[in-house]
Amino acid sequence: MTRAVLVTGGGGVGKTTLSAAMAVTAARNGVRSLVVTVDPARRLADALGADSIGAEPTPHPTEKNLWAAMIDAGASWAGVVRNYADPSVADRLVDNPFFAAASNHFPASQSFAAAEEATRLVEARAWELVVIDTPPAVGGIDFLTAPAQMTDLVGGRLLRWLTGGRLPGRRFFFDRTARPVLRIGDQVLGASLLEGVAEFLMDLRTTYDGVAHRSKEIESQMRKAATIVVSTADPTPIREAVRFFRELPEIASRPKAVVFNRTLPTDWIGARPGRVRVELAENLSRWGREAQRQQDLIGEFAGRYRTDLTKIPWRPEPPTDIDGLAGLMESADGFDLMSLCLVGGDPHTPARS
After folding, report:
1. pLDDT > 90? residue 311
2. Which of 50, 207, 338, 346 meets the CB 3.0–4.6 Å disulfide criterion with 84?
3. CA distances (Å), 22 to each of 25, 131, 170, in order?
4. The whole model's pTM is what?
């Protein structure tokens, strides 16, 4: 059994660090764990203290049950085409200049490639736990909606109209009738633009059956995965967290829990300083009011969306080594996140007091 955990949320809230921390803690509990990031930044490598992380899972040098990987969505998209198109068509598609434009500028293509690669790692069953650090905010939504969008792209009404139905001899008809006309148009434009576009669309259409089938498999895995939303008690991350509760149930499972990262200590609320300078006393009072604001907002969020919560205390610097990552999970207060990660665990295991 392989359990997948999707870690979602806005940018800059500590998703990648938390993903690494969950995988490290599970590994230290004897669970073969893989942490995967779709974020091209070096945050995962930095968090794990690794020199580099590649597309293929790499074992950690000191943690025997821990692996890490970073998905290259651009390279994966080429792999998707080679998987679902005839070899001769796949080579022609990848070499077509419009392929590069589509893979770079059509967001769903990269998101589909990333979701397909993450699904492949889950289906490999080489690990008991796969923690997937999804792209920030809208990218996280795109990551989950991409399979349906890709099916629409390669099998949609517009593409069917441009390329015709899946009739025998369609390619022959195109070569004998449409291509000569397009070449005349290209002579007027002074480039092989129209013919290249038509060739690209015809080849892209041939991937429909494979992409549609694979999309259903990806969506099935995403619905089985446990989703965790990471936020801070700041307005923008909160708005992004709300989006996942509003939009995610339509495409995947409802979030299992919300992690409020960098929360201030509740004992700062109403704290009364001793004999100190007025400036220091006022500073402590401001931080106490901020801690109260965070506490009220978190309570309101929990009540409105009826979700389990975990709070991770604010610290001056994020963890920079394996022990620091493990300590991050130990400091979590509230819903027991590790019950989602430990294979066979009950997601409603009572939290630590």
Report:
1. yes
2. 207
3. 5, 8, 52
4. 0.79
